[in-house]
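Why predict the complex rather than its parts? Because the way molecules touch one another can change local conformation, and only a joint prediction can capture that. The input here totals 316 residues.
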Amino acid sequence: MEHPFRGRKVRPFTIEIAALVGAGAGGGAFADLTFPALSPRLADLAAPWFAIGAFSYGAPAGLALGWRSPSDFAQLMSIMVAPSFRGQGLAARLLGEWEKAAARLGATRVCACHSTRTKQGAAFEAALARAGWPAPQLHGLHLIGEAGALAEAVAQWPGVRGRLTDSQISTFDTWTTLTAVDRAAIERLKAESGIRPDIAIQQYEAALDPVCSVIVRRRGEVVGWIFAEPVRQLPIRGYDDRVARFYPVAYIAKSVQHTGIMIAGFWHAYSRQAAAYGCGSLVVYRTSTPGFMQLTRRLAPIAIRVDEIFESIKKL
Ligand SMILES: CC(C)(COP(=O)(O)OP(=O)(O)OC[C@H]1O[C@@H](n2cnc3c(N)ncnc32)[C@H](O)[C@@H]1OP(=O)(O)O)[C@@H](O)C(=O)NCCC(=O)NCCS
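Output of the joint prediction:
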């Protein structure tokens, strides 16, 4: 039988908006409207996560999902509108409702990121604009590359070459149990860095790979660290046979920034990764530090992929 709506322009929906927090709120039905890594949370969404869903006659039509940070902002992690409901202003509406929910939770800023790989980036930017968000700005770079090629390229970085094995002054130790003195040095560095005090090194230590995580010492004292951890979900297809390490956090003391010591630290990390897991094992990192963005752009020709990440921040 001919479908009754065929050939007709149909506006088959009224939209209801609902907060999807808690078991029984129906969040699980929205699993296809976010990234697979985030969808398991939806069935019983709990703080600091919160979401706004749009229903059309009881069926999921769109979802805005994010979390409230312990400081002053809320981060939008994903927004998706089911294909048949796109282009009718639903994303902008979801953004508006999600912002209101963020404000109710005490946030004074809302942040959203997307990258050059976001397929509907133009539509997303237009939705942000319609919802009154400032135009996204370049915020950082995301790199995926092979450990062997990266180690080789970093070693060619002028000004670093001579410092890679400068063990008289700096050492790049693999991660071992830290002493109380090391931990005190790390707390001092966290205070100078602006790293949120509630971010404990122990959070990362639980997951880190000691082979390619590095403690940087200068004359015996901790001046920096590089964490590496197994990649939970590889953000690229076709490389499932490779070992991959994500480098989520690195810091170097202000007193020795811009000396090439951190770049040397990464050389040690990538070299150790290549030795342990093969030159073709994958390195994944994000950076928004100007110096490292510059280095990352120089690594781009030998990387598998470098994406630009854009950020929009709206004051509430
Ligand atoms: C991005 C997305 C959420 C937009 O949803 P939507 O409901 O279609 O958005 P809206 O209807 O509110 O449209 C917003 C604006 O985008 C414009 N737009 C829609 N599709 C577009 C496209 N393909 N290219 C450029 N602009 C587009 C609309 O014209 C509208 O602009 P206007 O306000 O100036 O008229 C939707 O495309 C989607 O779910 N994409 C997949 C997931 C995604 O990429 N999410 C963003 C990053 S997490």
